[in-house]
């Protein structure tokens, strides 16, 4: 058996006044898949960075196979058989798959015997859990294939312990199941031990053997997956009573009435948008969003969703096509946004929705600082904006030193809360939402979803992009799938099959029963060939 046993004993790590890890002891059995759960900032990344050698703990020990080890660097971690797949791609775009695999070794000879290396790589690929073309470059690979390459790079080094940080965020449901299933098989065969950082309870319940939950830098609990459920895990994550039925805040069903469709609030006709390198990122998209419904855009990251939402927000030029709001031509100016009541929740609020050096109050007031009751006769009303900001800070639970603090000094999650306060505090006819719970803590997710549904119930047309298909299935009334810059499928969210939708997300339209389960296309949507 090559799989190793990992233990941490009373591990501690401090960054200034922040105690990121506090007396954390976990036990990972050899040849198992061990899930690591926790809210943003719970200490998961700090823990695994101490294990792989990127950071040094201030207290406690890391033990490999029962022996204390000093992992002073990532190179020392690799020498012990520890590998890690990070959230962000580290492949070299201009090199082939073969070359990316080879450089994963580290030190290489001055002259490479490519005939021997190619034979070795071909043999490795034959035994690998998934295959890639050795001559392809990352530019030719989909996001899911790039993630598979990242995993293959580590498997090529034959790790005894493989740590994966949110490895399925760019995968379709089918790819996620394929990857996690293959890694579980390798673990159960004794070839490696897997530590899986994830926020998806479904992945924990389906693929992990054991789970440890971190909360505010401490170990909140650990158990066998077979002896727990998502509700209990959610309660451990948030540190509060799971409720009379044992259900966590996140697992409770959203209270929602059936959608009552109003008039078309947002209309797209032939919308075409160029990407960062001039390529067509959004290709002649037609879509209507009615008042009183949430339309979710599903898709693997990098298929045009970001460019679409930036074009609608006025942050990216349109190459062709038209956009209307309530029947009027829409150019996303500030005056139009106010008159037509268009609001937005950007994916990266500090970059796309805020001025970092300005105060929290000023940022909350960006839409309304120059109108009554905050201004009269062209002059600001002293204290009015600050008073309103204090009210919204309390309502949306923004953690800040005060309304006068620069918004750039807030954590990412609290920046998102402040933007939510600004955008959801007034009625809206159209709401443009991109990954709305990104950076928010676990307890805030249900609140944000409830606020989106409340806006929909008031007649708002909500267009929502999310890379989490389960989130869309829970929140949206209708789902459209975006692949290769086009809308390739549309169905009602209720009763839709996630795996059938995943086939569309991956660019492979299902047929027969899969297509039936995915849901019928709405009239007028052109399905890509």
Short description:
This protein has 529 residues and is α/β, with parallel strands linked by helices.
Describe this structure in words.
- The chain has helices at residues 44-52, 74-79, 97-103, 114-127, 143-156, 173-188, 201-207, 230-238, 305-312, 334-340, 349-352, 360-364, 384-395, 412-424, 442-457, 469-475, 498-505, 513-518; strands at 6-15, 18-28, 33-38, 59-64, 67-69, 82-85, 161-165, 193-197, 210-215, 218-224, 264-274, 280-290, 293-298, 320-325, 328-329, 342-345, 375-376, 379-380, 430-434, 461-465, 478-483, 486-492.
- Among the domains are: 6-92 and 160-238, Rossmann fold (3-Layer(aba) Sandwich); 254-260 and 291-317 and 428-529, Rossmann fold.
- The strands form 5 sheets. The protein has a 6-stranded mixed β-sheet, sandwiched between helices.
- The chain is globular and about 75 Å long.
- It has 529 residues and is α/β, with parallel strands linked by helices.
- The two termini are 48 Å apart.
- It has 18 helices and 22 strands.
CATH topology of one domain: Rossmann fold
Parts with pLDDT < 50 across at least 5 consecutive residues = 241-252, 520-529
Question: What is the name of the CATH class of one domain?
Answer: Alpha Beta
User: Structural class of the secondary elements?
Assistant: alpha/beta
- In DSSP terms (H or I, runs of 4 or more residues), the helix count works out at 18
Q: From the 3D coordinates, which CATH architecture of one domain would you assign?
A: 3-Layer(aba) Sandwich
Physical arrangement of strands within the biggest beta sheet? 6-7-8-3-9-10
The tally of strands reads: 22
Distance between the termini: 48 Å
The biggest beta sheet, please? 6 strands, mixed
Broad shape: globular
Helix amount, in percent?
Answer: 25-40%
Q: Which superfamily, in CATH terms, is the homologous superfamily of one domain?
A: P-loop containing nucleotide triphosphate hydrolases
- Percent of residues in beta strands? 15-25%
Average pLDDT value?
86
Question: What radius of gyration results from the CA coordinates?
Answer: 25 Å
